[in-house]
Amino acid sequence: MAIKITLNQLYDIMYDNMDPTGWWPGRSDWEVIWSTVLIQNTNWKNVAKALKDLYKVSGFLPQKILALTDEELTNAIKKAGFYTRKVKTIQNLAKYFQEYSFDLELMQEMPKEKLRKELLAIKGIGSETADVILMYGLRKGEFVVDNYSYRLFECLGWKMPKYEKAKKIIEGDLQDFTLRNYQNFHAMIDTFNQEYKLPQDFGKSFLANYQLITPEEKTSEELQKINL
Q1: Which of 57, 78, 121, 173 has the smallest number of Cβ neighbours within 10 A?
Q2: Residue ranges of the HhH-GPD domain (predicted)?
C-alpha cells in the first residue's frame, strides 16, 4: 500500500535522495533570462550553442541586444530554433528591462506579483517562462509548473489542474518555502524526470512507494476536523 505524503514531505524525501543544486545553468542573471526564452520548444544542447553566439555579439547585456539589428540577433540565436518568434520575444523582454534602467537589483526589491503581471503582459512570455525568470533572474520564490512536475505528480497519484490553478494550490501548501527551496524543488523534479523518463521507470525509483495527498483529500480531512 502506498505511503501518503504531503508536498513538503515529498521535497524532504527528494532532498535526502538527490543532490540538489538550485539548478538553472548560467554564469549571470542575464544569461539565465535569455535562456528562458531560447529553451522554448528545443533542448539544452541547442540553447548552449545559441547562448555562445549571443554572448559574442552582446555579452548578454540587454543594451547591446537592443542595439543589434533583427538580422544580427537572428543569426546569434538561430541554433535554438523558432528564431523568428524568439527574436521578437527577446527584444520585447529587453525593452521591458529598459523601463527599469536594466537594474535587476532594483527589480529584485519589487513585489513579485507586480513583476509577474508585467512579464505576462509581454508578447511571447507565458506563465512558465515568467516564473523561471522570476525565480532565477529576479530572486523570487515561485513554483514552476512545467511538464516534468505534471508527469511526476501524476505518477504520485495527483492529476494536476491547469497551470495557474495548480500553481496556486502548490504554493498554498509551500508557504514556508524559501527561494532556495523553490529552486531546489524545481531542479530535483526536472532531474528526477530526466533519470526516470518512462512511467515504468518510476516503479524502480525511490518514490515508487509514495502517493501525494491530493488537495481534495486534504480538504476532506480539514472538513472532518472542523465537524469534530
Answers
A1: 121
A2: 38-195
Q: Judge whether 129 and 36 are in contact, CB under 8 Å.
A: yes
Residue 151 cell numbers, joined: 508527469
Pick the closest to residue 23 from 148, 109, 122, 119 (CA basis). 148
- The backbone region for 196, taken as left when phi is positive above 0, alpha when psi lies in -120 to 50, beta otherwise, is beta
CA distance 60 to 84: 19
Which cell goes with 190? 526536472
Type of residue found at 111: P
Q: What is the pLDDT of residues 140-179, one digit of tens each?
A: 999 999 999 999 999 999 999 999 999 999 999 999 999 9
At which residue does the C-alpha cell 549571470 appear? 28
CA-CA-CA-CA dihedral for 79, 83, 87, 93, to nearest 10: -80
For the cut 50, the answer to whether the pLDDT of residue 37 exceeds it is yes
Closest CA to 156 of 190, 203, 188, 191: 203
Shortest CA distance to 22 belongs to which of 181, 189, 142? 181
Instruction: Write out the three cell numbers for 39.
Output: 529553451
Helix axes 44-58, 70-77, angle to 10 degrees: 140
pLDDT at residue 223, as a whole number? 35
**Residue 224 pLDDT class (50, 70, 90 cuts):** very low
